[in-house]
Design a protein that fits this description.
Blueprint (H helix, E strand, L loop, with lengths): L6 H10 L1 H5 L5 H13 L1 H19 L7 H13 L9
Helix pairs in contact: 3-4
The chain binds zinc ion.
Length: 89
């Protein structure tokens, strides 16, 4: 028997690797370990599907430059203030 300490410990380890698994960045042996766990653990499988759907939504919605507007506003504010950087000291 190869029971590890607590039933939830494997789940925690798998969840800690979940993003890497979804990104395909895990080495094959670890990736297989995650897949095998997901095959037998509905709890982790549910969280994995949720995370996968979330990542897919985020990536599908990825706009060319989401930060550009905020960045431009900051630059404009800096230019308007005379181009001097502000020192709080
Ligand atoms: Zn699990």
């Amino acid at each position: 028997m190869s029971d590890r300490s607590a039933p939830g410990s494997t789940c925690e380890s798998v969840m800690a690797r979940l993003l890497e698994h979804l990104d395909g960045e895990l080495p094959p042996s670890l990736d297989t370990w995650v897949r095998e766990h997901l095959a037998v653990c509905e709890h982790c499988l549910a969280r994995t599907e949720h995370q996968r759907a979330f990542l897919r939504a985020v990536r599908a919605r990825r706009t060319p430059t989401p930060a550009t507007e905020a960045l431009r506003a900051r630059i404009e504010r800096t230019l308007r203030s005379g181009g001097r950087s502000e020192h709080d000291d």
